[in-house]
Design brief:
Structural class: alpha+beta
Radius of gyration: 25 Å
Distance between the termini: 98 Å
Number of domains: 1
Number of strands: 3
Order of helices and strands: HHEEE
Helix content: 40-55%
Strand content: 15-25%
Shape: rod-shaped
Length: about 130
């Protein structure tokens, strides 16, 4: 009968186990960083929609708050709008009408070497205008 040589089999098992462990570690760190990014973006969106709904417009106070948040956090893309505009040139929204903002951030899955997997994290918040325009 044949006798199989099993020398080195344990070494290969350990190497495969280490590679799998490192991949799981990298993926869990990426997941944690995406969750952290999402929480920060939730805070940014909440601050911006509060500013917009309180003033009833996407005016100077809104953009000042946006620039403060850009300095405090990181660059992000922003889209905004309303279901119905009271004055489109001044971007004002009448009392009780819906306003919304969407912020997004492009990032990559880290730790995969030469492979770059793009990921876009997006947060949308809405609220009702609290300002009555005459």
């Amino acid at each position: 009968m044949f006798k199989l040589n099993k020398r080195g089999e344990g070494y290969i098992d350990i190497c495969v186990g280490v590679v799998v462990f490192v991949m799981v570690l990298v993926l869990s760190l990426n997941l944690f960083s995406f969750i952290t990014l999402k929480v920060e973006m939730d805070q940014i969106a909440e601050e911006l929609i509060k500013s917009a709904t309180y003033t009833g417009e996407f005016g100077d106070e809104f953009w000042e708050r946006d620039s403060d948040l850009l300095g405090e956090y990181y660059d992000y893309d922003i889209e905004y709008g309303a279901d119905e505009w009271f004055n489109t040139s001044l971007e004002r929204v009448q009392l009780g009408d819906k306003m919304w903002i969407t912020i997004s951030k492009d990032t990559y899955v880290q730790g995969l070497g030469v492979f770059k997997i793009p990921v876009t994290v997006t947060v949308t918040r809405s609220g009702l205008s609290e300002k009555y325009w005459k």
